[in-house]
Amino acid sequence: MFSETYTSSPKTVATSIHNLLRSLRNLLRTSSKLTFLLIFSLTTQANRGQGNITEKQLQSPTSYVVDFWGIENGLPQSSVTSIVQTRDGYIWVGTTGGLARFDGINFTVFDTTNTFILYSNRIFKLYEDRAGILWIGMERGGIICYADGKFQLPKGLEKLRDETITAIKEDSSGALWIGTENWLFRFKDGDLENISQLTGLSSRAIYSIIEGSNQNSLWVGTASGLIYLENRYAR
Question: pTM of the entire structure?
């Protein structure tokens, strides 16, 4: 009676495991919203099980499964400008051709042809506040929000309809700070204030906003420098 022993090189084993994982990923993609997270975990664990894979290799780009989604996969446009994952698990993608919501399998597209409240397809900024409200800033379309399963334009924000929204930040008091190509605004309880005018700041594009450590201050990144605001007065 004869027996045959077959041996495989570590490289062959690694290739087989990765091929198996890729097949599994393709199968799961049709049935799970979290496939990409699951496969990432499986791949990492498989690599760790191959004694020849070092920790340094695990940290390299070749250790990760990379997927790509473009127009052919459902995105409205390939130029992605902003991404937010909301607390319900959806990934919202802002593009220069509309807004997309990704559930892990499919994209649902919202644009000016099917969502009348979107005044522009060029989505520049996405932001989720502490209440779970998604804020959507557009180029020359102002800002709207998505709450309770529908798009809305809160009272007071219609004044920004022609503005290009470049930054959004909620502070500890619940006020929403909105940066545009020209101004800095503060919005709370339906009241919209032009902080740039109140503080005597010259017109400048606002690119980034963070709250200071004392909660009464704000750091604002602009096209012409960094601004510090405290109690509404710039210094």
Answer: 0.73
